[in-house]
From TrEMBL:
The lineage of its organism: Eukaryota, Fungi, Dikarya, Ascomycota, Pezizomycotina. It is found in: Membrane. The chain crosses the membrane at residues 165-183, 189-209, 216-236, 248-267. Keywords: Coiled coil, Membrane, Transmembrane, Transmembrane helix. Residues 75-102 form a coiled coil. It is a multi-pass membrane protein. This is COPI-coated vesicle protein. One of its GO terms (molecular function) is catalytic activity. Signal peptide: none annotated. GO terms for cellular component: Golgi membrane.
Length: 288
């Protein structure tokens, strides 16, 4: 799970990082003993074969240093880290971040997954997943969400990972729809395509940031409300609906998701996302 979090915390596609994780498992590098016996070159080659080309050298170094830390400090067993943290999530997060290559995002991804086998870490959702949970009406009270899941730590882990995928999928659909605008090419279609690709990278890219930058809240606050994000998705979806089958598919899916967000706006039992309320307050304070 540390390897999974380490590779997926890099700014590359989820598919590529998952393929790399799967390949490391195939060659046995999920076994710390085999990973300990590997050379830097073997680790780098395994990452390359898994499609993790851009960060393979740094990744090979981080994997080696991780093995050394786990062997030296925890006798080759991360369960000893949990014991040292005395089952405290905050202390566990602090200790796991001692592994190079695991920043704030990596630590969150690790906790998302490890709660399925370390129940004392549950309930946990990383910040971005918690925002998405709020948007779809689950709220932000982790204990309430955990109770709704029957206090099942495995289900909590699945929810944590699944919520991030929703916005990533929308981002991918936008990028694909934008690329399709280039065929056949015209000045207007190229301009529209570039904009849609930028929109898709923004929507999907936000899921890879440990914290959303203040300027995103300021200049794109519509992304953090049901009505705003729904309207945005419908707008992008509508400009994709022409000429090409891929455009119709991408535009329709993005548009339908947008309609779902707008519907949530008019359900009284579901409050607006807390991050939108915070944005409003911060903007007003700056204006004063």
């Amino acid at each position: 799970m540390v390897i999974d979090a380490m590779l997926k915390s890099r700014p590359i596609s989820h598919d590529l990082s998952q393929r790399a994780v799967n390949h490391l498992i195939e060659v046995g590098f999920h076994d710390i003993r085999k990973l300990s016996e590997s050379s830097w070159e073997e680790r780098a080659m395994a990452l390359k074969d898994g499609g993790y080309n851009r960060y393979r050298e740094q990744g090979a170094t981080n994997l080696g240093e991780m093995v050394e830390l786990v062997n030296d400090k925890y006798a080759g067993d991360l369960n000893n880290l949990l014991k040292k943290a005395k089952n405290d999530r905050k202390k566990t997060r602090q200790l796991i971040k001692e592994i190079k290559g695991l920043g704030d995002l990596g630590a969150d991804l690790f906790l998302n997954n490890v709660q399925s086998v370390w129940p004392s870490m549950a309930p946990f959702l990383d910040g971005r997943s918690l925002e998405t949970a709020d948007k779809v009406g689950l709220g932000t009270d982790l204990e309430v969400i955990y109770a709704e899941l029957g206090r099942d730590c495995v289900s909590m882990s699945r929810l944590a990972n699944g919520l991030r995928i929703v916005n990533i999928v929308v981002g991918v659909l936008m990028v694909l729809g934008g690329i399709s605008q280039f065929f056949p090419a015209s000045m207007s279609s190229i301009i529209v395509g570039v904009y849609v690709i930028i929109f898709g990278l923004l929507v999907g890219g936000l899921e890879f940031l440990p914290n959303v930058p203040d300027y995103v809240y300021r200049y794109a606050s519509f992304l953090f409300s049901f009505l705003g994000r729904g309207g945005f998705y419908i707008f992008v979806g509508s400009i994709l609906l022409h000429d090409n089958v891929l455009r119709y598919i991408a535009g329709s899916l993005v548009g339908f998701i947008g309609l779902g967000y707008i519907a949530l706006e008019f359900i009284p039992s579901i409050e607006p996302p807390s991050n939108m309320r915070e944005t409003d307050q911060g903007w007003g304070a700056e204006q004063v």
